[in-house]
Amino acid sequence: MKLKANDKLYDPIRKTFITKLPEEIVRQKLINHMIDKLHYPSGLLAVEKDLSTLPHLQNKEFKINKRRADIICFAKNIHPNYLIYPLLMIECKACSLTKKTIDQVLGYNHFVEAFFVAIANKYKIVTFWYNLKDQRYDSLDYLPDYTQLIRSVKNEK
What we know:
- The structure is a single chain.
- It is built from 3 helices and 8 strands.
- It is an alpha+beta fold.
- The longest helix has 15 residues, at about 20-35.
- The mean pLDDT is about 90.
- About 25% of the residues lie in helices and about 35% in strands.
- It has one domain: Alpha-Beta Complex (tt1808, chain A), CATH 3.90.1570.
- The chain is globular.
């Protein structure tokens, strides 16, 4: 299959053009919104990140069978043992956000242990965090800006 120039999207994180697939359109629109409107630092974003390469998972005993996170936003000085740590993990979907897709990303976070998890499609985004007091996930129907997430994590400490 021969691709035309308009069959590609520029990924500002990976600094390359990628094939314009439905899920990739969701991912790239979200990345641009995160950087331009929500002030997420592009230098702390990773795309298609192999979970087994995360520094805080290097010495873990479990296997993460080649799973990748669509987007991970890291932050500095939010974890007592690591200089840089996952603040937010996002799963992008071209399909509807079902209980199964939500459970999938929350299951990934069982390993990653990001403070926040979000799932997005072209119509909506839902952000989750674990409420220790009530022993359950709470959620918002939007993605807070970077400063709000950092402030929330630092207030929990």
